[in-house]
């Protein structure tokens, strides 16, 4: 087994008295063999579940935007990047300025080093030619890619993705999926992907966890997940396949 870079231990989080996370436990490891990726490297760990089951709240606990009411969240001492569902770009800044912002605000790097890192991040997501454009001038997929460049510009070791393909057409979704896999391979990041898209999870993940009622129902490699006999998993898989047809 690999090194645990993220671990939840019996995490409970309530909002207005309702337990959104209700004893959630799981671990994300570095150095596992990725089943779907067919290579030995850091993990692409995907969290599935219906709306309102705590998927995004789980990500917010990892990055420290939320704290558990009880239980423990353990995250390795690592640089963490976060791709928000909307991209969360600042409208009055160019793509270049948006991507450079974490370096400008949190480091003392020279202008030359900032320029090098921003260029590298934009090149990794195929947006170097759009550096001088503003968010309103970008398609939804390009905004997601710009947000991803900002998430990795500090040489992130862990990247969190909140519904990275939500609202995108199938072709653009495939581009984002490919980027997740490519960054995992080329930069050695550990990725945690929250999505409702089972097909995407099956194609890109090394392990898939299904959350229901704030708990982990199953956490398995994609092929085992799709064959899992647990009622909750079978119902989710069946419903997802029904939406695809």
Structure explained in plain terms:
- With 245 residues, the protein is of the alpha/beta class.
- Helices cover 38% and strands 27% of the residues.
- The strands form 3 sheets. Strands 7-8-9-5-10-11 form a 6-stranded mixed beta sheet, sandwiched between helices. It has a 3-stranded antiparallel beta sheet with strand order 2-1-6, with helices on one face.
- β10 (207-212) and β11 (215-220) form a beta hairpin.
- The termini are far apart.
Which helices and strands appear, and what pairs or packs with what?
Elements: E1 3-15, E2 18-30, E3 33-34, E4 39-40, E5 44-48, H1 55-63, E6 70-75, E7 80-83, H2 95-106, H3 111-124, H4 140-152, E8 158-162, H5 170-187, E9 190-194, H6 198-204, E10 207-212, E11 215-220, H7 222-227, H8 231-244
Helix pairs in contact: 2-3, 2-4, 3-4
Concise synopsis of the structure shown:
The chain is an alpha/beta fold and 245 residues long. The chain is 38% helix and 27% strand. The strands form three sheets. A six-stranded mixed sheet has the order 7-8-9-5-10-11, sandwiched between helices.
Which terms summarize this structure?
6-stranded mixed sheet
Q: Please mark out the parts with pLDDT under 50 across 5 or more consecutive residues, or reply none.
A: 31-41
The string of secondary-structure elements, in order, is EEEEEHEEHHHEHEHEEHH
Distance between the termini: 38 Å
The rounded Rg comes to 18 Å
The dominant shape is globular
Q: What's the mean pLDDT score? A: 85
**Helical amount among residues, as a percent range?**
25-40%
